[in-house]
From TrEMBL:
Pfam family, one: ADH_N
One record GO biological process: formaldehyde catabolic process
Keyword NAD included in the entry's annotation: yes
Gene designation per UniProt: LOC115971946
Organism: Quercus lobata (Valley oak)
Reaction(s) catalysed (UniProt annotation): a primary alcohol + NAD(+) = an aldehyde + NADH + H(+); a secondary alcohol + NAD(+) = a ketone + NADH + H(+)
EC number(s) given by UniProt: 1.1.1.1
Subunit structure: Homodimer.
Protein name (Swiss-Prot/TrEMBL): alcohol dehydrogenase
């Protein structure tokens, strides 16, 4: 691929393969599609590899509501190479290695400039199944039917188009399968430990849910020198996995007897964990995590997305005793500035990423990744586009 800002295919409609979700919960169908050239402030990316995140599964199963939009191209954790750029694009050039991200980062609004937030005040509220600026799609099937985008990434396609606010330039030195992990779950967990909770050396941590996000929280807490990292999960097999990321203790709610999880954690930490992280998305666990935190300064970080409409019920008196609860999207990570830092830490052997990859598949076998995830056998499955 040429290293300047012009490629042979620039400005042309590209035909490529994509895995299309046409019916909620049904296997994806790999078809030929057409991908339009990028418009102003957009780039077209040749996807090298992608992975499957739980969020993809959640929306893939969604049969009703405004977010249930089909046919659609899912996928939002990926790495690729810039194939062409639209007008007004200065940040990227053809041949750049980039990581598309679901969270916009314009770098110009007051929120993007502030260290207190990673929520872009210009683009964050423009929720759409299409491109963020003009609300149109860049995908069509071979019958001319519009194919909808997903989280402004849609990486289950050999080529995709993203807005410049949804892309991060990364060093080509990092292996692309490892870089792929930084697009959502792993960055969320590490960022939550580093940027939201600001875990410090010698502290105690409790993690509710030991999926990829929870494991990433453990890795972030381990990096910061946490003394005790407690994992709460129903699957005892996850303890061995968690040990690789620094987990020191494991609590299975089904084997606590008459004690609540919060009581067990208080015993393990002599009064409650300094930091608690809810990584599942259940209101009941959010409440239990809060009650597991230490009086006086305990901090609970909510990372899971509650999809059942349940409310969190807490006694206001508990807040008066110094506990706090805070929500976090993408672990407080500012994509354009923080993800390159994570990549460098991996290259410097300061951050574990390899252990998150449990499976690798070819693009043709993408539905196998869905099966492995639903069977609980996969952490992160890397899907290679050229295999």
């Amino acid at each position: 691929m040429e290293s300047n800002n012009k490629s042979e295919t620039a400005g042309k409609v590209l035909r490529c393969k994509a895995a299309i979700s046409r019916i909620p919960g049904e296997p994806l169908v790999i078809e030929d599609i057409e991908v339009d050239p990028p418009k102003a402030w957009e780039i077209r990316i040749k996807i090298l590899c992608t992975s499957l995140c739980h969020t993809d599964i959640t929306f893939w199963k969604m049969k009703a509501g405004p977010a249930a939009v089909f046919p659609r191209i899912f996928g939002h954790e990926a790495v690729g190479v810039v194939e062409s750029v639209g007008e007004n694009v200065e940040e990227f050039t053809v041949g750049d290695t980039v990581l598309p991200v679901f969270l916009p980062n314009c770098k110009e609004c007051s929120d993007c400039k502030s260290q207190k937030s990673n929520i872009c005040s210009i683009f964050e509220n423009k929720f759409s199944p299409e491109m963020p600026r003009d609300g149109t799609s860049r995908f069509k099937d071979m019958n001319g039917e519009i194919l909808h985008h997903f989280l402004w990434v849609s990486s289950f396609s050999e080529y995709t188009v993203v807005d410049v606010t949804h892309a991060v330039k990364i060093t080509p030195e990092i292996p692309v399968d490892k870089a792929c992990l930084l697009g959502c779950g792993v960055s969320t967990g590490i960022g939550a430990a580093w940027k939201v909770a600001e875990v410090e050396e010698g502290s105690t941590v409790a993690i509710f849910g030991l999926g990829p996000v929870g494991l990433a929280v453990a890795e972030g807490a381990r990096q910061r020198g946490a003394l005790k990292i407690i994992a709460v999960d129903l699957n005892p097999e996850k303890f061995d996995i968690g040990k690789k990321f620094g987990v020191t203790d494991f609590v299975n709610p089904e084997t606590c007897g008459e004690k609540s999880v919060s009581e067990v954690i208080k015993e393990l930490t002599n009064g409650g964990a300094d930091y608690c992280f809810e990584c599942i998305g259940l209101a009941s666990l959010m409440q239990e995590a809060f009650l597991s935190s230490r009086k006086g300064w305990g901090k609970t970080v909510i990372l899971g997305v509650e999809m059942h409409g349940a409310q969190v019920s807490l006694n206001p008196y508990e807040f008066l005793r110094g506990r706090s609860m805070i929500g976090s999207l993408f672990g407080g990570v500012k994509p354009k500035s923080d993800i390159p830092v994570f990549a460098k830490k991996y290259l410097d052997n300061e951050l574990r990423l390899d252990e998150f990859i449990s499976h690798e598949l070819s693009f043709q076998d993408i539905n196998k990744a869905f099966e492995l995830h639903q069977e609980g056998k996969s952490l992160r499955c890397i899907i290679w586009m050229d295999r």
